[in-house]
Automatic annotation (TrEMBL):
<keyword id="KW-0378">Hydrolase</keyword>
<dbReference type="InterPro" id="IPR003615">
    <property type="entry name" value="HNH_nuc"/>
</dbReference>
<feature type="region of interest" description="Disordered">
    <location>
        <begin position="396"/>
        <end position="421"/>
    </location>
</feature>
<dbReference type="InterPro" id="IPR003870">
    <property type="entry name" value="DUF222"/>
</dbReference>
<feature type="compositionally biased region" description="Basic and acidic residues">
    <location>
        <begin position="405"/>
        <end position="415"/>
    </location>
</feature>
<feature type="domain" description="HNH nuclease">
    <location>
        <begin position="317"/>
        <end position="370"/>
    </location>
</feature>
<protein>
    <submittedName>
        <fullName>HNH endonuclease signature motif containing protein</fullName>
    </submittedName>
</protein>
<keyword id="KW-0540">Nuclease</keyword>
<dbReference type="GO" id="GO:0004519">
    <property type="term" value="F:endonuclease activity"/>
</dbReference>
<keyword id="KW-0255">Endonuclease</keyword>
<dbReference type="Pfam" id="PF02720">
    <property type="entry name" value="DUF222"/>
</dbReference>
Length: 421
């Protein structure tokens, strides 16, 4: 057992976090008392402490979010940081980000959460409810929602009350109904298409931060000016970029089935789709008879043997091989689908000397592809089973631990440095 010595009033934030971490580690190893009554009392007291810790965590997240520090570590958004480095599920990460961003406007919520008078669940619910309200409406809503929480309404009913407040604000402002993003909430992206009389259409919608990162990574490189004579504004170039992506992705219906050559000649070995879904051997042979076949020659360990070119842009055949090997971006923890990624030269493209060979290519989302180019000393590249894996390393001179979520993390320098310490 470690002894913990810290004066709460004079200790620094770093020292208090270290003390809290040490206490939590020790507490996690203790067995619960046999008495149900004692456990109930201790659980309620511990829950209050955890709610207060959530307030401290929200303050830390707010600074990271405001300064964009996560981008120095190879992460495109605050949500990606919480999901990849702290192991949070998507909904939990969004909830904590909303609380971190709204607390500066919720002084009463902040004060009550700090003293333990308000639970984290209520605080997060109120923060979510006021996201789209003005400063004046936010203050009024905070009073109403805190009063409802104090009267014993459940967090779910407080959330519904928050939605009602949005409706009343919209009605006061003369709107027939609240904006679609308010009515739909902010968990999922949405898009509506309205046809015009001349055959065109209007697009309206909202993208969550993760989908926004995908949109930026996909369209931004294509929306750059074509040259000094390109007179189109950003909106026109973005529309052209979207058209280019849609045209390139819908040339023909295509299904990739991976199968051994013996399966086509009568063997019972099943094939598989790119996501691992098995395809019975009989169905593989039926597909081979009724559909066009583009063979991809793979060797031991899924190592591609052919489809190489020595030009700057990867060929469609090469991209198809890469989309078969990579479901997502090659950067560990990035979940951008491979279909939306760019082809990346693993060793970089310098003056046309780096070959565009299939065994030197991988898929990388637009954001990480640019980040890799500008931070070459912060990328660790490994290869296994014919696939490359990129790991984003910390900025120079910074060492810290992070949670290990898989055996592969044992290869991570951060993890190794902590073990050595």
């Amino acid at each position: 057992m470690r002894s913990i010595v810290a004066d709460p009033h004079s200790a620094s934030t770093d020292e208090l976090v270290e003390a809290a971490a040490a206490i939590a580690t020790e507490l996690a190893q203790r067995a619960a008392p046999d008495s149900g009554a004692a456990c109930m009392e201790l659980a309620e007291k511990l829950a209050t402490s955890l709610d207060q810790a959530e307030l401290a965590l929200a303050g830390l997240i707010a600074v990271v979010d405001r300064t964009g520090e996560m981008k120095q570590w190879g992460l495109p958004s605050t949500q990606a940081w919480l999901r990849c480095h702290m192991g949070m599920r998507e909904g939990r990460a969004k909830e904590r980000i909303a609380l971190a961003r709204q607390l500066p406007r919720l002084e009463q919520v902040k004060a009550e959460l700090a003293t333990g008078a308000l639970s984290y669940g209520y605080a997060a619910t109120i923060a979510d409810a006021v996201q789209r309200l003005s400063e004046q409406d936010c203050a009024a809503a905070e009073d109403i929602l805190l009063k409802a929480a104090g009267e014993g309404l459940s967090a779910g009913k407080v959330a519904r009350l928050g939605s009602k407040i949005h409706d009343l604000v919209a009605e006061r402002n003369g709107d027939d109904q609240p904006p679609q993003d308010v009515r739909r909430g902010y968990e999922r992206s949405w898009l509506t298409v309205s046809r015009s009389l001349d055959g065109g259409c209007y697009l309206n919608g909202w993208l969550n931060p993760e989908d926004t990162a995908i949109l930026d990574g996909t369209l931004a490189p294509l929306a750059k000016p074509a040259g000094t004579d390109d007179r189109r504004d950003l909106g026109e170039r973005t529309a052209a970029a979207l058209s280019s992506v849609l045209a390139g992705g819908h040339k023909a219906t295509r299904v990739t089935v991976i199968a051994h050559i013996d399966t086509l000649t009568g063997d019972d070995t099943p094939g598989r789709l790119r996501d691992g879904t098995p395809v019975p051997a009989e169905q593989v042979r039926r597909l081979a008879l009724t559909a066009g076949i583009s063979p991809l020659i793979l060797g031991k360990g899924n190592e591609p043997l052919y489809l190489g070119h020595t030009v700057r842009i990867a060929s469609p055949g090469q991209r198809r091989v890469l989309e078969t090997l990579y479901d997502t971006c090659a950067v560990q923890g990035c979940e951008v689908p491979g279909l939306l990624c760019e082809v990346d030269h693993v060793d970089g493209w310098a003056l046309g000397n780096s070959p565009t060979d299939i065994d030197k290519l991988t898929l990388c989302c637009g954001w990480h592809n640019r980040w890799k180019h500008t931070h070459p000393d912060q990328i660790q590249i490994t290869k296994a089973d014919g696939r490359y894996l990129y790991r984003a390393l910390p900025p120079n001179g910074i060492t810290r631990s992070r949670r290990s979520r898989s055996p592969d993390d044992r290869l991570d320098p951060w993890h190794d440095q902590q073990l050595a310490a």
